[in-house]
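Archive entry. Fields below.
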Amino acid sequence: MRYLLIVNFEGGVVEAPMEEWKPEEITAHLDYYKALHKELVSSGELVDSQVLAGPNLAKIVRFGGLNAPVVTDGPFQEFKEWLAGYQIVDVDSEARAIEIAAKISAVPGPGGIATQQPIQVRQVMDQAPSDVAEMEAFLQQVGGER
Amino acid sequence: MPPRVEDLLRDLAPQVLGVLIRRSGDFYAAEDAVQEALLAAAVHWPRDGVPAKPLGWLVHTAVRRMIDQRRSDQSRRDRESLALLQEAPTGEIPAKDDTLILLFMCCHPALTPASAIALTLRAVGGLTTAQIANAFLAGEATMAQRISRAKHIIKASGVRFRMPTRNELAARLRTVLHVLYLMFNEGYASSTGHELNRTDLADEAIRLTRMLQRLLPDDGEVMGLLALMLLIDARRRARINARGDLITLAEQDRTQWDQALIAEGVALINRAIGKGAVGEYQLQAAISAVHDRAARPERTDWPQILGLYGLLEQLTGNPIVTLNRAVAAAMVDGPAAGLTLLAEVEDRLRGHHRLDAVRAHLLEMAGDTRGAMAHYRAAAGHTTNLAEQRYLTTQAARLKMQAARDGVASG
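PREDICTED_STRUCTURE:
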């Protein structure tokens, strides 16, 4: 099962932005992520992991019909609601995805205390059915006209 | 690579690996060496021609790789094992058993199904890591890690390269069949037309199950699993339309069904059931066979399907089977009979999208359009499978239009 783990700029119990942390606290924070990344690579569970550029580089694009696409700044939402990065993991159970999300949320902030930042856990839709004989049984339903 | 060379390599892969493990006692290193030998053959053979003794060529090449690896490994100067490796091929090794032992090893209960599938594809199926990664839509590095980890677990479990004892055999065989079934399951996705160039895991699962069936020709459940795969695979082309939408059995173009596969599957399942001791795969295959034998949907022998689901339910106690039985009951005795059955499993399956999907279907049969629509929507909101979601959403949309039409007509 694949899960998307979403990290926003929501700081959890930490109020101070990272610029105000001590350098060694920033290092500890980033080292923690690095170690976790390594762990997920070696367990064969990590599918993808990305950190996104900041909101000031964000653009919104709308189809413009016969005219050029309309490009604007935005969206104008609170900083903490912006997507900061994400990981996609391929795991054996939802419990394992939650365990990994909890590890992300345990990343240390100032004073080495876990930030407890909220991590969104979203299941990725499957191409394969969970059980092929069940899928075939599902197709026994005599559906209406399509 | 020409298909003939590729097939040959894939057939020989487990035999070479068996020889190397016997000589070295080291599954981990032997598996790496065989993989390298296969890659070397894939380069040389199409260019220089297939050698006169392909198995010997592969064993020789793999042994050389293994010796090179050991020599470069400063920490172990195990002269004895080098000598053992260098022994001339003796040719007395029963390749038939080796493949079977390897299958038992790779489908080890200590592994997660996903790891067992990957390892089986490489060690027994002779696929490259790149091909396996492609099949799972994963990165090659990720897949290499997963396989390497699986090999470490096998090594750590201390399992020896031998046939399971008579006492272990039944349980271990169940695990092997389950892994092959899940491999086939994974392959179902690649037939949705979404991923055109994926390595075909359904074909691979069938190939390996055929191999297993040749090795254990009298086992009813092995026959049952192979039959099930063939009978489901026979409908592959008809199951999905060009847009990737699921098509129900009733609406499939049955001229697209593969009659050769159906004939083979039906023959197998008849033979299996004749042997007594009916198992889960056999019953599922038997149900598939009833569908596959009906030239038109109206000719489907629903009473027989109803009976088979009853047996399957007794055997497994799985509430999902009860849902399937409810669909069959509705076809035999009308929707009310099906809805009554649903009540039995309601508590155990609350929130499961299949419960809502079946209920929607039965309510529609009973003429309750609005109720059906609501349950199709609920089902669509709970499924994690894309094709199913699209199907369920389309059903809800169709009923909404119908309700609007009926509303206009009556108002």
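CURATOR_NOTE: Chain B touches chain A through 65 residues (CB under 8 Å).
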